[in-house]
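Chain A, query sequence.
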Amino acid sequence: MTRVHDTDLAVAATGLVKTFGDFRAVDGIDLEVRRGEVFGVLGPNGAGKTTTLKMLATLLPLDGGSASIFGVDVRRHPHMIRQLVGVTGQYASVDENLTGYENLWLFGRLQGLSSARAKATAGDLLERFGLAEARDRQISAFSGGMRRRLDLAASLISQPPLIFLDEPTTGLDPRTRGQMWDTIRDLVREGSTVLLTTQYLDEADQLAGRIAVIDHGRVIADGTADELKSSVGSSTLQLRMSDPADTGEAVVVVRRVLGEEPVLTPEAGGLNAALPDANRAADVLIALRQSGLSIASATVQKPTLDEVFMAITGHGAEDETHDPALEAAR
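Chain A, predicted structure.
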């Protein structure tokens, strides 16, 4: 077993850079992940999340910067890094022609376990992830959620202290996503450290103690979920106009009263405005009435990560970016 260096940081990365031709997929990213936490890396497709994870896991070489895992240098000791890290990618890496048990046994053998130890480990992991009843079923008959759980189980065969989860709930239904969240929480309670990439704001909010927001290959904000939410105001006024055609005029009024640009919410047919003080909501409502604008609904609540992301990037976290270079980066 590789000796883990004495450090409070599971991951320490400074100035990470990765280029693909003229495309700079990762542009000077700094990350610090503490032992025993879930650290979330939040951003849209093409932001550089997966590329960053691949560099830290030694699956891609670093074009710039430095990184260490539990004090072990990623560039100089890639074989040691691979003993410290378990990786679950966006897509299941299992063999569809084998059963769940056979897949885990094979992964165990590939990682140097004896046949008997690989069998015992496979059985234990199937039980732990609620797959014992399907152990002899071919993967082709597994549901999407079962595949994701099996893929996560495979990454734990060597019992790594650090687990990289790259968008682990992509494509899963809400119930199965909840089950995966419970599994991730269990891993942390048992002593693991988790670095999680996601484009789902609720996932980062639910799981991550600290979050780095990445866009266009750079970290543009970081902190706890509450710290990020506080950065756009202590409260948010959510408005929906009686006549959607009045929304544009309402934006002008809100901007004049608060001195801040509100965020449009097209799916809800309204707008959200950050409030430095919840009492300022009354000023906005009075100004709208004086302007002859009718309100269908108005609520004041704490800001969400969605509003944080919109405020600091100008677009949603699930926006797709279509670029051949981005596909290469992934």
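The radius of gyration is 23 Å. Confidence is low (pLDDT under 50) at residues 1-6, 320-330.
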